[in-house]
Automatic annotation (TrEMBL):
Residues 364-635 form the CSC1/OSCA1-like 7TM region domain. It is found in: Membrane. Keywords: Calcium, Ion channel, Ion transport, Membrane, Transmembrane, Transmembrane helix, Transport. This is CSC1-like protein erd4. Residues 5-164 form the CSC1/OSCA1-like N-terminal transmembrane domain. It comes from the Eukaryota. It holds the Pfam family RSN1_7TM. It is a multi-pass membrane protein. The chain crosses the membrane at residues 6-27, 81-107, 144-163, 366-389, 418-438, 458-480, 563-594, 615-635, 641-661.
Length: 715
């Protein structure tokens, strides 16, 4: 990509961002769009706009985001969201403090040398942007000392800010868990790998007697985990009939007019997809189906509670200190029996995974890792092809009929600027769901843990396939003839390609923060979908609420996407310092726009109290180590004799990660007793705590009836 194409890409992205900002300012001020732009505030019973519409201008949201405190974020979106902003702020700080030295020192050093005369790419060209990078510095030059020292500077800044961030997140987590409010999960533990029941004993009696012996004063009761898949299916069917009934009643009410005060009762056919079978009155039909399904559900509840008990249970204690102590204690001599973990929020439990035995979980984990490794390897092939063949030169060779289009200068410039990046973004969008399914197959017991696991897999995938894959793919395809003649030049060609690939990644980062965050702020897609649903599909208030339900921030894909940018910017920060302000813009703009979205739009689907942070911290360190190793190799290619003095950097990073894990991680892995010992406002209502963990499909208004007494005794 030449300099004019780069500027075209940057300018176009900026124009798109400005247009999307204007669109947001206009659309968000329309009262009819409040549920799209302010759903979080509406759900919390707050006014969509503070001070009303008249007091606002197009930049009010920026002021509100900048003046909001961490306490505001926790109150509106939870601790996990606040921790995500610690991540954004930390990386932004690293880039700003690094850039304060890298830009004024390295750019003049690079641009005033004449390395371009001896260092050209395989086709004999040298981009104007390469003159601003390390590629313009001659081999063995003393100027390389400036780049060498800056490698240490970036690493030291990262260590200092990461330490401060870890300490702050640990405090944030502790303060949230100390809160005097009653949280059901703080009074419970999850027990897995329960041994087989002795003859003449029930599972309920086995579990109760075991924990009563260990905790005679604070044990409250147990809930045996059951296989309730069939009950879930019936319950979902029942909920579907209730929604259809509400919809039919709403249609019937709207049909009543002055000309037809009786209204027209809706009808439907009972056959396949409602297009065949006998025609019936919809309201009467769905009332009958609801009554039938309720009876069916109650019968299945009794069968499930009696006959489908699993080798797992939830144990409740009347003291959260005892629950915290039990969650981190070894209860049995053998590790594969009576294994325990701290209970998550009830909504997070992955019930089917609780019954999976200890050694099965271990085997599943390694099998999934193997599958993920294969996925990474097989995905690397198409990504390498995408990076190579979506360049305009290669496309013209493969598709000669597009030559007339390419000759149009404006179209050529736009295609060169955007084609590879858009192809890569679309390709990556297909992966996250597969990784989440694989993570759940490991036997992970909670939703947040599965998302963290999928996020880690996605991070390594993006780094290996996008960062390394694009670099290797572009170089190998672009220099194939040279390698045929001189295979021993592979290492030098790969190293010399790094500054050239920085241009691709500069454009990629710019596209992500200008267009990506512009679409995020404007919410055009959710807005269009909501209005289409409201006009053509929604008949009831419940359907309307579902139409504008905002969802959460989506940490499973958002964090790995951000970490890819961290990796790119770190690895190119010294080689091509011009990427640093682009990275700072990405995280600065992200902090600002997502702050607005967290305060007004997104609603968290769960709360893990910052459990994502240790994983984020480790991924940043992995990116830092990759950067340090990359620089070590690049200095070697530049024949800088003092390159081995960079070897301590990755070793220091590993040591830093080890110290952080020993000092901070245990408080994230297990609940601490000093936090649990804080006093509460009111004593917990243990019956409500217990009922919070009952799955919706097993919860019934008749649960206290005599018919259910026997079944409930097993729970």
């Amino acid at each position: 990509m030449d300099f004019s194409s780069f500027l075209t890409s940057l300018g176009t992205s900026f124009i798109i961002f400005v247009v999307l900002m204007i669109v947001f300012a206009f659309l968000s001020s329309r009262p009819g769009n409040n549920v799209v732009y302010y759903p979080n505030r509406i759900l919390k019973g707050l006014e969509p706009l503070e001070g009303g519409y008249k007091s606002r201008n197009p930049f009010t949201w920026i002021k509100e985001a900048l003046t909001s405190s961490e306490r505001d974020v926790v109150a509106m979106s939870g601790v996990d969201t606040a921790v995500y902003f610690v991540f954004l702020g930390t990386v932004l700080g690293i880039l700003v403090f690094s850039g304060m030295i890298l830009l004024p020192v390295l750019l003049p050093v690079a641009v005033t040398d004449e390395g371009w005369k001896s260092q050209t790419t395989s086709n004999g060209t040298f981009s104007e942007l390469d003159k601003l990078s390390m590629a313009n510095v001659k081999q063995k030059s003393n100027r390389l000392w400036a780049f060498f020292i800056c490698c240490y500077w970036v690493s030291i800044v990262s260590f200092i800010l990461l330490w401060r961030a870890y300490k702050h997140v640990a405090w944030l987590r502790g303060e949230a868990l100390k809160a005097p409010d009653v949280k059901p999960e703080q009074f419970a533990i999850v027990v897995r790998d329960i041994p087989a029941v002795a003859e003449g004993q029930t599972r309920k009696d086995q579990v109760d007697s075991y924990f009563k012996t260990i905790y005679p004063d604070t044990f409250y009761r147990s809930m045996i985990v059951t296989d309730h898949k069939k009950a879930d299916k019936i319950w979902e069917e029942l909920e579907g009939y209730k929604k259809k009934l509400a919809r039919c009643e709403a249609v019937f009410e709207k049909s009543k007019t002055d000309a037809n005060p009786e209204g027209t009762r809706p009808t439907n056919r009972t056959g396949l997809l409602g297009i065949c079978g006998s025609k019936v009155d919809s309201i009467e039909y769905y009332n009958e189906k609801i009554n039938e399904t309720i009876t069916k559900l109650e019968a299945e509840q009794k069968v499930t509670l009696r006959d489908k008990q699993q080798n797992a249970a939830i144990i409740f204690f009347s003291s959260r200190v005892v629950a915290a102590s039990a969650a981190q204690s070894l209860h049995a001599q053998m590790v594969d029996t009576w294994s325990v973990l701290a209970a998550p929020e009830p909504c997070q439990l992955l019930w089917p995974n609780l019954k999976i035995k200890f050694f099965q979980r271990e085997v599943r984990q390694y099998v999934v890792y193997f599958i993920v490794a294969l996925t990474i390897l097989f995905y690397m092939i198409p990504i390498a092809f995408i990076s190579a063949f979506t360049t305009l030169q290669n496309l013209v060779k493969l598709l000669p009929f597009i030559k007339p289009v390419v000759r149009i200068k404006v179209l050529r410039t736009v295609l060169e600027a955007y084609l590879p990046q858009i192809a890569l973004i679309v390709f990556l969008a297909l992966l996250p769901k597969l990784l989440l399914i694989l993570s759940k197959m490991e036997g992970i017991p909670t939703e947040s843990h599965a998302i963290r696991a999928a996020s880690g897999k996605y991070f390594y995938f993006t780094v290996l396939n996008v960062f390394i894959g694009v670099t290797l793919g572009g170089t190998l395809f672009g220099t194939l003839k040279t390698l045929e003649n001189s295979p021993n030049k592979l290492v030098s060609l790969l190293a010399s390609s790094l500054p050239g690939n920085a241009t691709f990644f500069l454009t990629y980062v710019a596209l992500k923060f200008f267009v990506g965050y512009g679409l995020e702020l404007s919410r055009l897609v959710p807005l269009i979908i909501f209005h289409l649903k409201r006009k053509y599909l929604c008949k009831t208030d419940a359907e309307l609420r579902e139409a504008w339900a905002p969802g959460d921030l989506g940490y499973g894909t958002r964090v790995p996407g951000d970490m890819l940018i961290v990796t790119i910017v770190f690895c190119y920060s010294v080689i091509a310092p011009l990427i640093v302000p682009f990275g700072a813009l990405y995280f600065g703009l992200g902090w600002l726009i997502l702050r607005n979205q967290a305060l007004k739009v997104y609603v968290p689907s769960y709360e893990s109290y910052g459990r994502m942070w240790p994983h984020i911290h480790n991924r940043i360190l992995a990116s830092l180590i990759l950067y340090q190793v990359t620089m070590l190799g690049y200095f070697g290619v530049q024949k800088f004799y003092y390159a081995p003095f960079l070897i301590p950097l990755p070793l220091l990073s590993i040591l830093f990660g080890f110290v952080c894990a020993k000092k901070f991680y245990p408080a994230f892995e297990r609940p601490t007793l000093e936090v649990a010992a804080n006093s509460m406002n009111v004593p917990p209502n243990m019956d409500l705590v217990f009922r919070a963990f009952i799955p919706p499909s097993l919860s019934s208004e008749k649960i206290d009836d005599e018919n259910f007494e026997d079944a409930r005794s097993h729970v």
